[in-house]
Amino acid sequence: MDFSFGAEDEELRGRARAWLAEHLVGPYAQAVGLGGPGSEHEGAGIRRAWERELGRGGWIGQGWEADGWGNRRLSLTGQVVWAEEYAALRAPGRVGHIGENLLAPTLIAYGTPEQQDRFLPGIARGEELWCQGYSEPGAGSDLAGIRTAAVRDAADGLYRVTGQKIWTSLAQDADWCFVLARTESGSRRHRGLSFLLVRMDQPGRVEVRPIRQMSGTSEFNEVFFDGAVAAEAVGAEGDGWTVAMGLLALERGVSTLVQQIGFAAELERVLASYAARATAGAGDPVLRERLVRQWAELRTMRWNALRTLASTGDPGAPSVAKLLWGGWHRRLGELAVEVRGAAATAGPAGWAPGLPYELGLDEEQRLFLFTRADTIYGGSDEIQRNIIAERVLGLPKESR
C-alpha cells in the first residue's frame, strides 16, 4: 500500500488549513484546545456549535463508503491530511465522532435505505449526536451477558426498552443512543439480541446519571431505560450480535491514526517539559531513555495502523491496536508526572481547597489520572488477549 502524500493531498492540506484558520475565529477561537478524552467537560456548548460548523463545511463523514448526505468523501491519505491539520491547530475536541465513525458506517453496511436517509444527514450536518449503549454493570468486557430487554408492542410495532447501561460516553449531550438489547425472552449469550435506535429525549423513560471520575470530570454515564421507545432495529430482529460486532470492527482504520496524532501532541508537551528541566540541570538519563522508547513505540503504532488499513478481515487487528495504545498512553501519563517531579503533586497557581476539584488539576495531572483507565475501558487488556488467543491463534477457549 502506498501511503505517501501526493500533489492532490498537499492541495487538500492547503484548503483544510485555510478553512480551519478562517472558521476558528470569534467564539470558536476560545474553544481551541478544549475537549477530548479526559476533558469532555470543557466547552460542551460551543463544541456542539462547532460540530454544526464542520457539517456546513462538509467535513463530517469523509470516510463513509457512500456520499450524498452532505459529506465530502476523501481518500485515506486525504483523511489523514485533514486530521493532521485539525490537530496542528488544536481545533475543538469532536462531540459527534460516535455517530460519524461508529453508527454511520454501521448503517451504511447493515441499515435500510430508509434508515440511511433518516439518520445520516443529521450526523453529516453535525445536528444529531449519538452515544453507544453496550456495556452494563454485569456485562462489560463480556458483552454477551447483557440483560437489558426490549419487548415489541403488537399494537404499534415499536420496542419498549428496559434496563441499564454504563460507561456511556457523552450520553449527557447525545440525542440518540444505539442500544444492544435482548428481544427474545429466555435467550442466552449471543442469541436473541437486537440493535435498537433509541431517542434520548424521553423524560421519565430515559435517565442519565454522570459518573464522577478521580480526575473530577464526568464524561462517562449510567443510562437507565424504563420502557423507553425504540423506533426501529438495524438488521433483523435477533441478529443484533452480528451488527454489534460489525460496528466494533469499524473502530479500526483512519480513526486510529487520528488518535495517534493526539498522542503525538501530548508526547511533545511531555518532551518539552523534560527539555526545560534538563536545560536547568535537572535532567534524568533514565527518564530520557523512557521518553525515547515512548517516541519509538508511537512510530511503531503508526506503522501497525497503516498495515491494518492495507489488510482486510484480520480478526485480531482491533485487539492488537487496543493493546498497543492502551498501555502506551498509560505509560505516557505516568511519565508526564514523573518528568515534573514534586511539582506534579501541587495544584496550579490560584487554586485553593474548596474550589471544584477538576480546576485543581493541570494538563499533566489530568492525563495521568485519566489514562489509568486506558487498559480497562473499550475492552480490557485481558479480554483483548483472549480474543487474539482464541480467534487468531486458535487456542482453546477459556473455561466459563
From TrEMBL:
Acyl-CoA dehydrogenase/oxidase N-terminal domain: residues covered: 8-127
Alphabetically ordered keywords of this record: FAD, Flavoprotein, Oxidoreductase
Record carries keyword Nucleus: no
Keyword Membrane annotated: no
Domain Acyl-CoA oxidase/dehydrogenase middle: 131-226
Record domain Acyl-CoA dehydrogenase/oxidase C-terminal: where: 238-393
Cofactor field: FAD
Leader peptide range in chain numbering: none
Pfam families: Acyl-CoA_dh_1, Acyl-CoA_dh_M, Acyl-CoA_dh_N
Family label: Belongs to the acyl-CoA dehydrogenase family.
Name listed for the protein in its UniProt record: Acyl-CoA dehydrogenase FadE
